[in-house]
Amino acid sequence: MAKPRGKASLPQESLEFFKVYIPSLSHEHLRIPPAFVKVFRGNIPKNGILRDIRGKCCHVELEEVEKNVFIKKGWQEFLRDHSVTEGDFLVFRYDGKILFDVSIFGRSGCRKEEIPDIDKTIIRVKREENTEEETEEKLTKSPHDYKKRQLESGNDRTENSAFLHIPRHVLKTENIKLQNEMVVRDQKQRLWPIRVSTRKDGRQALAKGWTDFWKANNVGKGDQCLFEFILRRGRITKEMHVQVVHARKRPKNPSRS
């Protein structure tokens, strides 16, 4: 007896692909392997969902460019939220519609630990060695429910840039514990080992290694640094994401005619 004909389904293994994360190639967007594109059968979804092993979802947009398909809008957010670093191995499993289940493996070959909560704190960089001024404070909610605190203070590149103090009340209010040895990730996904210095009065600062970050990212007077504290169990952080927002250059005074 002949079986009824229907739409042929692809074997499950054909609905999977992997990518090794290389920042220079995949920081802004992710190119889906050309051999996998045939799975879409010409119907490339404009919107997709990346779901991690905990069930947390990140909405992304897919775009076809010259027969290549890229995961674009939302991809950088996924990288930040999941602390994806160079050399990580990502396995994507497609449900045939819009959902991609993503498993992330580190260089060790093991699945990366659970994704931590993230506190986002905005601090304008301060370069006065023995003072800590806070001229404005505002607590708001971002679209992704990050805790965001705005602190404004002065900054001068000509002063000693070997230390960056983290305001004590931020650590106390959010119950954040800094490890002595930390890693700072910049906008280019580069990692910077940083040592945390604790003073007798309890103040903590990013010390050894901070100067390297400072110089490489050309942090100058009036610039802001957007800090994301990556919190793990016990509110302990050993990694921070830092985005430098450069101040606008003031126009030179025009010469009088």
Describe what this molecule looks like in 3D:
This protein is mainly β. Helix content is 11%, strand content 39%. The protein contains 5 helices and 16 strands. The protein has helices at residues 23-26, 34-37, 75-81, 168-173, 210-216; strands at residues 16-20, 30-32, 47-51, 57-65, 68-71, 89-94, 99-105, 117-124, 137-141, 147-151, 164-166, 177-185, 191-198, 204-206, 224-232, 236-245. The chain has a 9-stranded mixed beta sheet. A 7-stranded mixed beta sheet has the order 1-6-7-3-4-5-2. The chain is elongated. The termini are far apart. 21% of the residues are buried. Residues 1-8, 124-160 and 253-257 have low confidence and may be disordered.
Concise structural overview:
With 257 residues, the protein is mainly beta.
